[in-house]
Design goal:
259 residues, three-stranded antiparallel beta sheet, single chain, alpha+beta, disordered N terminus
Length: 259
């Protein structure tokens, strides 16, 4: 009987933690109780001077899907001076450098998208720290031209892809907008690739033409099972064209497509 009670208590405690994490991650904003402070701070009612050294992992408590693919590298030492409102934790750039989880959705009378520390998002926000070249490209790697065409409004592309398109397609001026699935034309019709398509559905229809989803190289990222810009590209890979891997011998292409 005691074993059953202990087992029940343990299950209840685990369930409570999971429910709390779900509530914090799904609610409209971040509404923490004083006891929740220790998720990110070293003490209750903590401030910006007593954040946990591993605040990135603290963020992943409620945002586990962001571990594998981030909009910006974290836990790095900046190579240049940053504005005072871009918060560093023990000298490191972390999630809270760009995001202020305690601010409201409206800041200074304007929308503060994604809890960013300023009332701009996308490329304008990046320009707070990054410079641009004479072509208007951020100094974060080589970019390319192209155009996105929606052909299925029943689906939605992922947030990372929308962020990419915001800079690479002049018709998209806000990352708050939603776009249906479609195709990205890199340079010509020969380099057109679907975006927002469900990879498993494609595999199920043509199992001899595609690699099974569970056998894909870990560098090939899917977003809720769908193809996005981050499937073939990784801004921090160091590869030409920011490809997720070296494409010598069409290695990247053949990671998904079978001969």
């Amino acid at each position: 009987m005691r074993k059953m009670i202990r087992s029940f208590s343990l299950c209840a405690m685990v369930a409570g933690v999971l429910i709390s994490a779900w509530v914090l991650s799904s609610q409209n904003g971040h509404k923490f109780t004083p006891k929740d402070c220790i998720i990110c701070h070293t003490k209750e009612n903590g401030g910006r001077n007593n954040l946990c050294s591993d605040v990135t992992e603290a963020c992943a408590t409620c945002h586990p899907t962001k571990r594998n693919y981030q909009a910006h590298p974290t836990d790095i030492v900046p190579k240049t001076h940053l504005p005072g409102d871009i918060l560093l934790v023990e000298g490191l750039f972390t999630c809270v450098s760009c995001h202020d989880v305690h601010q409201g959705k409206r800041k200074a009378g304007r929308e503060a998208a994604y809890f960013l520390r300023r009332n701009v998002s996308g490329k304008p926000f990046c320009l707070i720290c990054h410079d641009v070249d004479d072509k208007g490209h951020l100094f974060m790697g080589t970019t390319h031209s192209g155009a996105f065409k929606v052909n299925d409004n029943r689906g939605r592309i992922d947030a990372t892809t929308l962020l990419c398109i915001e800079c690479h397609d002049d018709r998209i001026d806000s990352m708050d907008k939603q776009l249906g699935a479609g195709s990205w034309n890199h340079f010509s019709s020969r380099l057109e690739h679907p975006i927002g398509s469900d990879y498993r559905q494609k595999y199920n229809k043509q199992p001899k033409a595609f690699t099974p989803p569970e056998l894909l190289d870990p560098k090939i990222q899917l977003f809720d099972g769908k193809i996005g810009c981050g499937t073939c590209h990784d801004r921090f890979s160091g590869q030409r064209y920011m490809l997720a891997m070296n494409n010598q011998g069409s290695r990247l292409c053949f990671s998904c497509h079978l001969k």
